[in-house]
Amino acid sequence: MTTIVVTGGAGFIGSNFTRRALAETAARVVVFDKLTYAGSLDNLRDLESHPRYAFVRGDIAARDDVVRMYRQWSPDAVVNFAAESHVDRSIDSPETFLETNVRGAFELLEGARRQLRGADDATRSAFRLLHVSTDEVFGSAAGDSRFVETTRYAPNSPYAASKAAADHLARAYHRTYGLGVLITNCSNNYGPYQFPEKLIPLMILNAIEGKPLPIYGDGGNVRDWLHVDDHCAGLLLVLRRGLPGETYNLGGDAERTNVEIVDRLCALLDEELPSAANPALAGRAMRQYADLKTFVADRPGHDRRYAIDASKIERELGWRPVYGFDSGLRHTVRWYLANRDWCARVQGSGERERLGLGAPA
Description:
By secondary structure, this protein is an alpha/beta fold. Helix content is 42%, strand content 16%. The protein has 13 helices and twelve strands. Helix 2 (63-73) runs parallel beside helix 4 (94-116) and helix 9 (258-272) packs across helix 11 (325-338).
């Protein structure tokens, strides 16, 4: 049986990918996750009885854990989602990002190289390591330009710099050792199971609770948005048909300013859970969720615009997003409204109060 190890598989994108891989392949899927604050077994409860699913707790930056994983499971493929990814946290604590995002990527790559050293040619040539990265490695897009796979790297935050370093390591392991590495760079994801430190779930939950909706600066920072289901479909396609050594950009062709996102979320909430029927807003003289918007001081090094050109993966592999942004956002709002118990479990004691202080992008 083919085995896919999904590192960081208890997190937002990783758990969604795990579901898709189990549904669309005959592979055994092993989630390898440290279970930090943003990774939770609550994201995988529906898979616990699946005969081809397994969970292993481990740290990609811990060599013994990685060696043990490779020896126990001898994976045919590793998909690396494991990363610290919140820019605000990287500004406050950059060393954590270097440990997980750079050291962790190195241990996975080196572990694969060692595991395959004594393997036959067919096993070595069939192995794939898909390193999942971000558009933030490219810095801020100038004018009307979009990031292509050959855009010069220009990271502007400790998070982006750590991911850029990992991308370079992954590419080097393919060129130097012939390891079957693939790299993807994606735009901002949204959808079910996203930890509520990111913009969209944070705004939804703050609004439901009648808390301020903090928006950095003038709210004009632009991001391209991609539904997590579309992203995971693209990743599975890259894993199956992508060429080792290649990089593929995945984007939603849905650029919006942060304030546009917040305004649209407020409008959807007014439809799905009218403010007049929300006890958290009752008696506060607020006629709509948009009254909760609050502009706060911008964060250091805040990139103005990200924009992905995904024409390569469409041209070469036939991928394009299925979700339109409006339908995807409505689907996401409804999911969070229907799963508030999940939100309460994963947020942790005192975490929401801290997260309410800023709005990530």
